[in-house]
Amino acid sequence: MSRDARWKTLLELLVERGRLEVGEAAAELAVSAATIRRDFDRLAEQQMLVRTRGGAVVHGVSYELPLRYKTARRAPEKQRIAEAVARLVAPGEAVGLTGGTTTTEVARALAVRADLATGSPALTVVTNALNIANELAVRPQFKIVVTGGVARAQSYELVGPLADGVLGQITLDVAVLGVVGFDVAHGTAAHDEAEAAVDRLLCERAERVVVAADSSKLGRRAFARICGTELVDTLVTDAAADRETVRRFEEAGVRVLTV
Question: What is the pLDDT of residues 149-201, one digit of tens each?
């Protein structure tokens, strides 16, 4: 495993667990304890974690892993979710995409759909995610609209009041949300309040709202609320989702697709 791959995996494990011991991490990654100690030291220098005696911890409960460090962990689930979400979009529709790893996969799934290979436009995509806009801009059959705003280094998303000028003038057929957490009682959420505000505007401008979230996000809460559960039409998640949680979403009026 390369150093870059180790660092990405270590950071994701830290976000999931909050704390990692050197021995635990060494066993998980099948490398020596000395290698993990060096990795922890280098990541601490970059302020990506806090070094402790015998291990490392995240900076706090609101810690957000920058997108560039996110790995392909749960990649098969995210790709299946993305393909299912892409199938919910009809040719010619206007689609809003928030930032995130799962919504990036949705963009890629839309890009390779045979029935979206031609059109004027085949699809209109409105996004505040610079990486998604960059990937789709090479598709001449897609009309790409990028919101204004200030770029967040963590997620490549544009945030702030400059986005209001664009989003206040458009309507969408569907908004696809990538979320940090989705809880029946508390709704969808993100780590950052500015990011959540732009996502909320996308929801308000859309005829229907689709949440694309793997099962690890369900039942979780995060700092900044995006929208209530009552505004979500469809949740697309993976087959590992807890059945009771799925039932609660369905009782709240959300259509749940598991893939």
Answer: 999 877 889 999 999 889 999 999 999 999 999 999 999 999 899 999 999 99
Length of the chain: 259
Q: Report the amino acid identity of residue 34.
A: A
208 DSSP β-pair partners = 174
Residue with the two structure tokens 């995610």: 129
139: its two tokens: 């598709």
What are the tokens at 45? 């220098």
For residue 175 the two structure tokens come to 């908004």
Measure Cα distances from 145 to 148, 166, 215 in Å: 10, 9, 30
Q: Phi then psi for 247, rounded to 5 degrees?
A: -60, -40
Which tens digits make up the pLDDT trace of 105-134?
Answer: 999 999 999 999 999 999 999 999 999 999
Residue 73 pLDDT: 56
What secondary structure does DSSP assign to 7-36, as a single string?
HHHHHHHHHHHSEEEHHHHHHHHTS-HHHH
Q: Strand 150-151 relative to strand 158-159: parallel, antiparallel, unpaired?
A: antiparallel
pTM of the complete model:
0.78
Q: Report the alpha-carbon distance of residue 102 to residue 100 in Å, rounded.
A: 6
Amino acid symbol at 125: V
